[in-house]
Amino acid sequence: MIGQSPRAVFFDMDDTLLDGVAAMETAWPQVLAPIVTKAGVEIEKLREAIRREGSHFWRDESAVGHWRLDLIGARAIVVERALASLGINGSDPREISLNYAALFRDHSQLFDDAIATLEAIRAAGLRTALLTNGPKDMQRDKIARFELAQYFDVVVIEGEFGCGKPEAEVFRHALETVRVTPDRAWHVGDNLYADIGGAQSVGVHAAWIHRERLKMPETNAPAIPDRTVAHLDEITIALGLG
């Protein structure tokens, strides 16, 4: 429960403001098409093998968090394991990972509600922070391409700051920068472990956004959100801005 109205709202970037799933679903078929044609394998079988190996690789985020700063390398490992599981030889997993990264970038877009939400929150005089995990250059490229910096009082990037969510330092730095106490801040993100657990660890109200794609685990959830929303307009409505 929140006793006072928030004075600051923090946001995750990937799959909260940026639609990575749509980019992923467009990029993978283009990358995998020549591979499956040569190997005589159905594209969905290879795609499912990559999903399976990716889920296994990232299952314990606390153990593999360092790979967030080398997503090309992490993806190459996942692809290598997926190819091996289907007996596909002759393809370079790192080249596949690099090709995917380029296509993913080309097809990345903001969610339709992202800018309107940020503008409404800024217009209301609330302080804002962007808290994003990942490599510095990759995340800065996204911020520049979509002109996001103008909407935030502080931007904290894992590869630039020195640590990432769910580390308490990330959230405390944002709170100190915007001069707001934890009980007057909300954080919005899609990752139960990094966003929800991290925000709650310092007393920030945690809103989990599932975009009608994610489902809460029936057991052993990394964290239970204070608020669950499907889209960002639910945040502005909750704040009395829409």
Describe the structure.
By secondary structure, this protein is of the alpha/beta class. The chain folds into two domains: 8-19 and 109-238, Rossmann fold (3-Layer(aba) Sandwich); 21-107. It has eleven helices and six strands. The chain has helices at residues 20-39, 43-57, 61-64, 71-85, 93-107, 114-123, 136-145, 158-161, 168-178, 192-201, 233-238; strands at 8-11, 127-132, 154-157, 185-189, 205-209, 227-229. The chain has a six-stranded parallel β-sheet with strand order 3-2-1-4-5-6, sandwiched between helices. The longest helix has 20 residues, at 20-39. The two termini are 21 Å apart.
In short:
The chain has 242 residues and is α/β, with parallel strands linked by helices. The protein contains 11 helices and 6 strands.
